[in-house]
């Protein structure tokens, strides 16, 4: 099985008063609740999405990396004027990153971002040159740029901000000052995205990735960035890769020493030398009254023994653990009872563990678990996605024709009004037909991997995909 280890969050957890201040700043910029993680969450891909979404709306697709989801937040301290870089976990915890610098543009590296928030994932990546495992942050969306929320913008514009205004200046800085950046805790990359009628190329590209990828993320081009669960943001995995996060409970057998009298308190005790039963518990939601309790208070409350709380959890199923796995777990010296584990069903229907998810406070909610199980039962195969590509492309091109026609009608309407209202300045107000035709032709002849945002108030913005060129035609 591939190494599915998730990186620990780099940096240092912020002090409570600092974290409170940062949460307030994020809430003020994004206009979201300061006690909740502001990132969006996808829904599992079902057969309904295949036709209702992919055929009827514009989407961009990227591979789904198997890593740790975090937001990257850049903020300047108003009192010291120092630049601060922070990671925001899914538990809405803030971690300070020392030494990082994110320049605002490529011409002046002294200017820093301030109030910028991008979305991405931390992964372990194998360096193709050194062969060493390193941490990379893969950017795939943008929430705010310099104290201004961009969540209301469409995907093309958000990607433009993330790519041109954040990632490119950072890249230039690393190129020009590699020694100054070599000790930074991780490197940044920008996720390549493409149209859903090129999904087969994403599957081909996955073989060359330097990190683990277990599916696809499909993001709607037309909708805003939604904090919380976004019903248009789709997560596709092959059936065998669909996983669920459960809480683990270990049940050790009791040993009874029949040589001791029944009233002797040492007559019964847990036998920790024998492999226990591993039970999976599913989260029902709600707060745990003891979730922030320290170890000392836990021991005092439980009569001298530390006990994990399974409040708001119900028993779900058994976890299959081989004798070899148990010996490896036991020899590690770690504690496993009460930890969150990412699990999946094998071909025999039994649950097996892939890894621990110590970055998560709770397992998946019961409603999420039921949706994932439905997604597995109603799974869409890789080949079905590829087979639908011609229909997706035809629908995409038809929507583009409709948009161009509407834009042309709007253009003509504006010029008719200009003719009526400014008939004395015709030569200055009417664009020559030849120039207009040339402009349209230039737009239509752009490279197929260059995505142009719909015409609007700032139509100069566009996201450039850096891969998946059209294959040459064979005569």
From TrEMBL:
<keyword id="KW-0342">GTP-binding</keyword>
<dbReference type="InterPro" id="IPR013846">
    <property type="entry name" value="mRNA_cap_enzyme_C"/>
</dbReference>
<protein>
    <recommendedName>
        <fullName>mRNA-capping enzyme subunit alpha</fullName>
        <ecNumber>2.7.7.50</ecNumber>
    </recommendedName>
</protein>
<dbReference type="GO" id="GO:0005524">
    <property type="term" value="F:ATP binding"/>
</dbReference>
<keyword id="KW-0547">Nucleotide-binding</keyword>
<keyword id="KW-0539">Nucleus</keyword>
<feature type="compositionally biased region" description="Acidic residues">
    <location>
        <begin position="457"/>
        <end position="475"/>
    </location>
</feature>
<dbReference type="InterPro" id="IPR001339">
    <property type="entry name" value="mRNA_cap_enzyme_adenylation"/>
</dbReference>
<keyword id="KW-0808">Transferase</keyword>
<comment type="subunit">
    <text>Heterodimer. The mRNA-capping enzyme is composed of two separate chains alpha and beta, respectively a mRNA guanylyltransferase and an mRNA 5'-triphosphate monophosphatase.</text>
</comment>
<dbReference type="InterPro" id="IPR012340">
    <property type="entry name" value="NA-bd_OB-fold"/>
</dbReference>
<feature type="domain" description="mRNA capping enzyme C-terminal">
    <location>
        <begin position="241"/>
        <end position="386"/>
    </location>
</feature>
<dbReference type="InterPro" id="IPR017075">
    <property type="entry name" value="mRNA_cap_enzyme_alpha"/>
</dbReference>
<dbReference type="GO" id="GO:0006370">
    <property type="term" value="P:7-methylguanosine mRNA capping"/>
</dbReference>
<feature type="domain" description="mRNA capping enzyme adenylation">
    <location>
        <begin position="41"/>
        <end position="237"/>
    </location>
</feature>
<keyword id="KW-0506">mRNA capping</keyword>
<feature type="region of interest" description="Disordered">
    <location>
        <begin position="416"/>
        <end position="475"/>
    </location>
</feature>
<comment type="similarity">
    <text>Belongs to the eukaryotic GTase family.</text>
</comment>
<dbReference type="GO" id="GO:0031533">
    <property type="term" value="C:mRNA capping enzyme complex"/>
</dbReference>
<keyword id="KW-0548">Nucleotidyltransferase</keyword>
<feature type="compositionally biased region" description="Basic and acidic residues">
    <location>
        <begin position="432"/>
        <end position="444"/>
    </location>
</feature>
<dbReference type="Pfam" id="PF03919">
    <property type="entry name" value="mRNA_cap_C"/>
</dbReference>
<comment type="function">
    <text>Second step of mRNA capping. Transfer of the GMP moiety of GTP to the 5'-end of RNA via an enzyme-GMP covalent reaction intermediate.</text>
</comment>
<dbReference type="Pfam" id="PF01331">
    <property type="entry name" value="mRNA_cap_enzyme"/>
</dbReference>
<feature type="active site" description="N6-GMP-lysine intermediate">
    <location>
        <position position="64"/>
    </location>
</feature>
<dbReference type="GO" id="GO:0004484">
    <property type="term" value="F:mRNA guanylyltransferase activity"/>
</dbReference>
<keyword id="KW-0507">mRNA processing</keyword>
<dbReference type="GO" id="GO:0005525">
    <property type="term" value="F:GTP binding"/>
</dbReference>
<dbReference type="InterPro" id="IPR051029">
    <property type="entry name" value="mRNA_Capping_Enz/RNA_Phosphat"/>
</dbReference>
């Amino acid at each position: 099985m591939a190494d599915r280890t998730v990186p620990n969050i780099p940096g240092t957890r912020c002090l409570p008063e600092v974290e409170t201040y940062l949460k307030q700043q994020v809430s003020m910029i994004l206009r979201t609740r300061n006690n909740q993680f502001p990132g969006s969450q996808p829904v599992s891909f079902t057969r309904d999405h295949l036709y209702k979404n992919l055929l009827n709306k514009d989407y961009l697709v990227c591979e789904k990396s198997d890593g740790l989801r975090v937001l990257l937040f850049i903020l300047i301290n108003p009192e010291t004027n120092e630049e601060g870089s922070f990671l925001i976990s899914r538990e809405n915890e803030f971690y300070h990153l020392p030494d990082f610098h994110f320049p605002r543009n490529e011409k002046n590296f002294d200017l820093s971002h301030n109030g910028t928030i991008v979305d991405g994932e931390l992964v372990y990546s194998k360096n193709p040159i050194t062969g060493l495992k390193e941490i990379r942050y893969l950017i795939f969306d943008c929430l705010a740029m310099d104290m201004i929320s961009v969540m209301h913008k469409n995907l093309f514009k958000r990607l433009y901000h993330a790519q041109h205004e954040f990632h490119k200046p950072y890249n230039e800085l690393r190129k020009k000052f590699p020694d100054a950046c070599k000790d930074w805790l991780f490197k940044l990359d920008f996720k390549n995205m493409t149209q859903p009628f090129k999904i087969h190329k994403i599957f081909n590209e996955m073989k060359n990735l330097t990190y683990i990828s277990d599916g696809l993320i499909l993001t709607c081009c037309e909708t805003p960035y939604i904090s919380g669960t976004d019903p248009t943001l789709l997560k596709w995995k092959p059936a065998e890769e669909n996983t669920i996060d459960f809480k683990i409970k270990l049940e050790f057998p009791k040993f009874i020493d029949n040589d001791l009298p029944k009233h002797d308190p040492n007559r019964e005790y847990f036998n920790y030398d024998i492999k226990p039963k591993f039970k999976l518990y599913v989260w029902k939601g709600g707060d745990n009254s003891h979730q922030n309790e320290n170890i000392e208070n836990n021991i005092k409350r439980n009569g001298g023994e530390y006990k994990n709380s399974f409040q708001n959890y119900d028993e779900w199923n058994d976890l299959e653990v081989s004798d070899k796995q148990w010996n490896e777990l036991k020899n590690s010296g770690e504690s496993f009872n009460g930890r969150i584990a990412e699990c999946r069903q094998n071909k025999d229907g039994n649950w097996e563990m892939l890894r621990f998810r110590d970055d998560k406070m709770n397992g998946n909610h019961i409603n999420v678990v039921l949706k994932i199980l439905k997604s597995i039962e109603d799974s869409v195969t890789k080949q079905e996605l590829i087979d639908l590509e011609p229909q997706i492309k035809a629908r995409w091109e038809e929507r583009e024709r409709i948009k161009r026609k509407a834009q042309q009608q709007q253009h003509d309407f504006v010029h008719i009004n200009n003719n009526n209202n400014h008939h004395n300045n015709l030569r200055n107000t009417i664009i020559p037909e030849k120039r207009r035709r040339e402009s349209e032709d230039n737009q239509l002849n752009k490279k197929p991997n260059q995505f142009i945002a719909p015409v609007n108030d700032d139509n100069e913005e566009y996201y450039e995909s850096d891969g998946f060129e059209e294959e040459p035609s064979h005569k």
